[in-house]
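Next comes this protein:
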Amino acid sequence: MIGHNRFIATTTKYKIIPVENNKSAKNMWGDYLDNHLEDAFAEAPKVEHFCDNEKDANECAELVLKEIKKATSPSLLGLQYRSESLPKIGDFKVITDWNGTAKCIVKTTRVKLVPFFSITENYAQTEGEGDKTLAHWKKTHWDYYTRELAEFNRLPRESMIVVCEEFEKVF
């Protein structure tokens, strides 16, 4: 990680975008801090959208706004290949739509490393996407991991580690 630079997904590629270059995210973080001085010394938040396509990214942002989506699940392998750090409890993120417009701020409440084959129905419900079933979670995430890892000439496996990150919407 270089300073407060963060990765933001675009199609199936990732690029580094400085937090300072996202005006809506910077403004939202400032508005949050105006009302939460206790977080004034927190590390600048990561700025990101979910998914690797516009439709899903925008839909997931809306699910977070409605407090239906309360988790996300990047692959550990993908994070490692992109040199991204693991999320930590207490991390803040500004969630944007596909176009980079800030929608809300979330705070990480739990991080657990889990093999793909051990994801539970309860966790799939917490992630809040689609019909919230484990079958839906496994299908959509397998498809995503296949696209994500393809650029590194890797394939997902049932035993691969998933970073189960739970969060709460704070602003």
Observations:
- Residues 91 and 108 are 5 Å apart (CA to CA).
